[in-house]
Design brief:
Blueprint: H1 3-40, E1 44-53, E2 58-66, E3 71-80, E4 85-96, H2 97-110, E5 113-115, H3 118-133, H4 143-147, E6 171-172, H5 180-194, E7 200-201
Length: 205
Amino acid sequence: MSMNLAAKRGRHAVARKRQVAEKRRLELAERGLAARVRRAAALRVRRCFINGDLGGGMVSVVLVRAATPFVVHAAVFLVDSFCLGIKDVAFYEDLESEDFALIVEAMREAGETTDVAPDYARKLLRDASAWAGSIGFRPPRDFEAVEGLFGEIRADACDVEFTFGHNGRPHYVPGPSESRAQVLKRYAQLIAAVGEDGFDFGEPD
């Protein structure tokens, strides 16, 4: 065996070991997150609201549970109603109430905040995820764990029918944090799902 071949195999073995270790780390972190969320889901709902305009394509969905006035357990989901569905789980954190109040104030400055029923919020998340899934976009891997904060709240208790897409079709608007590779991958996915003429791209007119 040549030295070059041996070195190449060695590098592949190291890379594979790192991939396995990283996968294991993520699995353990996810299980830990799910356990934290399950414990918090037993607490009472302190508040549920949406930040932004659903008709504008992008909103944050926020659920807060708490057992005391001093610490809250908060989840924030970013919903792209035009294309990607659950674009991001912005965060799930245990926070002091004062710190969370600062986050809420910053969100108010960024857009309109509307209190909604928790079943409305859960149905919006589930419907957005299902619609985006129909065109090939899956939610972030931690969505299922964090969505568990809704606990006993039933999405089917809400009878609102949400509409997704823009003008009846997917409309992909890349965000400032998306890499070129992400944009190209999502663009290609839309072509595969609905064809080159089946969606719109860029800021709406």
